[in-house]
Design brief:
GO molecular function: GMP kinase activity
Number of helices: 7
Distance between the termini: 22 Å
Strand order of the largest sheet: 2-7-1-8-9
Strand content: 15-25%
Structural class: alpha/beta
CATH class of the domain at 8-37 and 98-200: Alpha Beta
Order of helices and strands: EHEEEHEEHEHEHHEH
Organism: Ectobacillus funiculus
Number of strands: 9
Shape: globular
Keywords: ATP-binding, Cytoplasm, Kinase, Nucleotide-binding, Transferase
Catalytic activity: GMP + ATP = GDP + ADP
Helix content: 40-55%
Enzyme class: transferase
Bound molecules: adenosine-5'-triphosphate, the ligand Nc1nc2c(ncn2[C@@H]2O[C@H](COP(=O)(O)O)[C@@H](O)[C@H]2O)c(=O)[nH]1
CATH topology of the domain at 8-37 and 98-200: Rossmann fold
Largest sheet: 5 strands, parallel
């Protein structure tokens, strides 16, 4: 027995820890049944990124209109650009009983936690700060200034780890994927057990 609404799964963590890499690896696996929520952003597309697949790329004015029209479940300004989660897709998909997967930064994840405390909040942690730095530098997509800013923010974000339900270390991509899948299976089982016992108890009365 599955609960009627899907689970909202939020993967978050500092820039460069490997959220995008782990998310892509997860979605390449055949047994994955989560639906990925594509975010909106005002940042410029990186080489190879496709509008509507990686992000919905927006002008600042368009994004601000989305904020004003309450079209976003959460949004944040991160190192000079807006990022946000379109609410309509998330609501419709959860309503259809499907699990929705968000990959977002920490300010946004904390906003989602307020709106959807029943979500599953996973903090992806680097093996060390020096490894985080080499990953973000090694990716080669940011200027030195942006790297410096992202690392400064990362130190503050790591302090928010405690607000999450789970911490998953991204030492190896496949291991991180396996841990996330195990968390989701465990959460479904836990919620189904609670629903079953709740039904039994209320039937007795
Ligand atoms: N487990 C891992 N071991 C080694 N390198 C990794 C691992 N996971 C990701 N990386 C590398 O680290 C870099 C950053 O990864 P990625 O872009 O996925 O991070 P991110 O958390 O999505 O960053 P951002 O928040 O800035 O978008 C990439 O070059 C990626 O290949
Ligand atoms: N609060 C939100 N953060 C988001 C969203 N989509 C992506 N992100 C996060 O932004 C940073 C930077 O991303 P990048 O693609 O420019 O490297 C990263 O931590 C993403 O996870 C969102 O909808 N809301």
């Amino acid at each position: 027995m599955r609960s009627e609404r899907g689970l909202l799964i939020v993967l978050s963590g500092p820039s460069g820890v490997g959220k995008g890499t782990v998310r892509k690896a997860l979605f390449n696996q055949e047994d994955i049944q989560f639906q990925y929520s594509v975010s909106a952003t005002t940042r410029n597309p990186r080489e190879g990124e496709v509008n509507g697949v990686d992000y919905f790329f927006k002008m600042r004015e368009e994004f601000e209109r989305m904020i004003a029209n309450n079209e976003l479940l959460e949004w944040a300004e991160f190192v000079g650009n807006y990022y946000g989660t379109p609410i309509a897709y998330v609501e419709q998909t959860l309503q259809q009983g499907k699990d929705v997967f968000l990959e977002i930064e920490v300010q946004g994840a904390l906003q989602v936690k307020k709106a959807f405390p029943e979500g599953v909040f996973i903090f992806l942690a680097p093996p060390s700060l020096s490894e985080l730095k080499s990953r973000i530098v090694g990716r080669g997509t940011e200027t030195e200034d942006v790297i410096h800013n992202r690392l400064t923010v990362a130190k503050e974000e790591i302090e928010m780890m405690d607000a999450y339900d789970y911490v998953v270390e991204n030492d190896e991509v496949q291991l991180a994927c396996d841990r996330i899948k195990a968390i989701v299976v465990g959460e479904h089982c836990r919620r189904e057990r609670v629903a079953k016992y709740y039904k039994q108890m209320t039937e007795v009365e």
